[in-house]
Amino acid sequence: MSMLQHFPICAIMAYFLGAFLIVVFGRNRALRNLIGFLSTATPLCLLTALVKPVLQGSDVIAYWMGSRVPAGGYAIGIALEVDALGLFFGLLIATAVFVAMIYSFSYMSHDDNEPQYYTLFLMLCGGVMGFVLSGDLFNMFIMIEILTFAAVALTAFRNTANGALEAAFKYLVVGCIGSSCILAGTIMLYAQAHTLNFAQLAAFLPGNLNTATVVAYALLFIGFCTKAFIVPFHPLAADAHGAAPAPVSVLISGVLTKSGLYGIIRLTYILFRTMNLGTVQFWLVFLGSVSMFVCVTMALAQHDFKRLLAFHSISQIGYVLTAAGLATALGVSSGLYHAMNHTLFKGLLFLCAGAVLHETGTTDLGKLGGLSKKMPQTTVLFLVGAFSISGIPPFNGFASKWMIYQATYQKAVESGNIGFLFATIVALVTSTLTLASFVKVTQSVFFGQLPKEYENVKEVSFGMRLAMGILALLCILTGLFPGFVTTYLTEPAARAVFGANNYINAMLGTGYAQNFGLVDALPVSFQAAGVWSPISWLCLLMIMLLAVAIVAVSSKYDQVSALAKTAAAAEAAEAKAGPRYGSGALAEGKYELFFGGEESVFSQVGGDDLFWGFKHNWRHYFSFMHELHSGIVNDYALWAVVALALAMLYAMIIL
Amino acid sequence: MILLNYLASFFLITLGLYCIVTKHDLLKSVIGLSVMDYGVNLLIITVGFNPGGTAPIFTFGELNPASFFVDPIPQALTLTSIVIGACTTAMSLSLVIKIREMYGTTDTRQIRRLRG
Q1: Which residues of B touch A179 (CB under 8 A)?
Q2: pLDDT tens digits, residue range A368-397?
Q3: DSSP string across A333-396
Q4: What is the model's pTM?
Q5: H helices within A110-136, ranges in order?
Q6: From the list A179, A626, A638, which residue is nearest B116 (CB)?
Q7: Residue A3 has pLDDT above 90, yes or no
């Protein structure tokens, strides 16, 4: 027994121990920050030490709590099991949590009840870490409950913020329906297999599928969907992100959704791998595509910075689900790659939104503007995040999205199923709409004219910039070296997804899986259809940026005089016509860049949106969606129940 | 007898979900959540129940292949689940109190500042 075996449990305990110590010693700020820093840095170091044996050597670390090893082929104790998939998600979580903790030190320093914040924060981290490293189904349920409670409490942490309490309540109600589904599914599996151990279930289930286990799959699947906020549950994410402090948004978007995705992947590919995979693929890809499209259009209609980012977050989760549902090696690998990128760029964007909120006190897109003059570094960091999420070439979003397009297309060609081609198309359209939406956000927050009340805004403190900088750097690095990422991170994880026998044998002894007559299902090939060189794209981007900079500098003086003229003309017109109604915000010249500055053109924009033409053409769709997202908790619960009923019916009839 | 237990647990789960979906009062939503929890707990206990089995309390010497007892694991799970259910109720009730203070109502149709 080597030292390494104890690292996973230590990683989980570090978070919970930190949470406990902060309750005891949390009054002193320096001590509190030290405990917070250590308890998030330790798991990151411990998991990094596991990279070599697990990700490169494809070892699986099995750890039995209290050394209660299996007897007679039956798992008795509670197990932790770390394979490449679990470690991949664990590393992702540890990184995001570490960065969010650094950011919190200065971001939360003006709040009341700071010790409680850190306690809940670390409980959430520990819950997610315990979830992805656990090898026991009931243990996973416990961890899900811990992280749900912590997330709900953190959503309502700034309980005077607009809507924080109602967001927390809605999340609690639907989250608890999801948790109860997971518990019911767990117990139905227990009734069939008489074990809760993942490896033993994975060995038992493939040969013994019946109606009860398939219904259990539907229950567990819906439960994990509520944690990942897949489509019928997406309003909860939007509400929670809008109200929660920025570092908590990083946790909910970058960490909590990953736990749901991890659950879905593990459930589908390890436990139920002999289920009719064709129909499950259709199900996952369909849900993923719907999530992508619905959420990106919802994001286009938003006026709040963080709420908009929240919808984009779920839209990107849709990409991951679509890719992971393909059941090909390339698909799963690209999905995991995008999951990693999602944590990095979404975390970065939420932290930038938090920086804007911290300095200006608002996230209303209509009120903000021109912050690039006051917060240049935040602007650059935000642009890195925006380029990444929209899939602009040298950044990481492009690498993973490109792989996802290829994976879906390859699947369509291989299986001859036209449906997967639609997934490719939806993914492309969603990416375009994402870019459009981020053009709007960037323009209305960082460029355009600076409102008078924000003239004293300053750049955020060093700690916050450091946290954002780490994520931006990771975004660029993972985009520039996709070969490195796929070889060392996502491909070993994808191999683990398709190598269930290795997982079972590591826990229950060599040859255990073979006794059940199990063979690993799919040949693992990571061959992508095309290659691309990120470095050349980087050069192209540099040249374009240089060109833009030259144009901006050379036309600066002209623009200023033109602006002054327009403003003077507008004032004169206003003085003549008396006070105007409606489009008051436009007089500030916010969208001048896009409308050439003529008032007659942009006065019809009808408020505050760049894409008014698009929105006008789609007005029936948008008003329908607006009506649908009523904000009443009963409606959201009804969606959950309908989704559950449909999933169970689908499972019973088709699988 | 066992069948009755299963029916009752599914009835409780359905009743809880029905309450959450149709009742426009925060407190009734909380009650619905609790009822659903009880349903799931009953399901767990039923799964582990063997008619005629004894309590699963043995020392190593007493345990032999002929001993017939109810499955102890679901009982342990139920205890955990009950604790979690109590936490859910406590937390949601405290949120209801704060919402009542801030919004002046517990009607879900009026607590919808975040929508669209």
Answers
A1: 84
A2: 888 888 888 999 999 999 999 988 878 888
A3: HHHHHHHHHHHHHHHHHHHHHHHHHHHHS--BTTT---GGGT-HHHHHHHHHHHHHHHT-TTSH
A4: 0.89
A5: 114-133
A6: A626
A7: no
Is B29 in Cβ contact with A183 (below 8 Å)? no
Residue A71's DSSP bridge partners are A74
Compute the distance between CA of residue A521 and CA of residue A517 in angstroms, rounded to an integer: 12
Q: Which of A308, A619, A633 should we substitute to test contact with B (largest number of B Cβ atoms within 10 Å)?
A: A633
Cα angle vertex A309, ends A303, A313, to 5°?
140
* Residue A53, both tokens: 């044996």
Q: Is there a contact between B55 and B70 (Cβ–Cβ < 8 Å)?
A: yes
Domain ranges of chain B: 2-51+71-110
Complex ipTM over 0.90: yes
**Are residues B43 and A243, on separate chains, in Cβ contact within 8 Å?**
no
Comparing CB atoms, the residue among A153, A166, A183 nearest residue B40 is A183
Category of A245 on φ-ψ map: left (φ > 0), alpha (ψ -120 to 50) or beta: beta
Beta strand residue intervals within A148-215, DSSP E: none
Across the interface, whether the CB atoms of A149 and B87 are under 8 A apart is answered yes
Q: What confidence category does residue A168 fall into, taking pLDDT thresholds of 50, 70 and 90?
A: very high
What are the structural domain ranges in chain A?
A: 276-480
Token pair of A40, please? 């998030």
CATH topology of domain B2-51+71-110: Helix Hairpins (1.10.287)
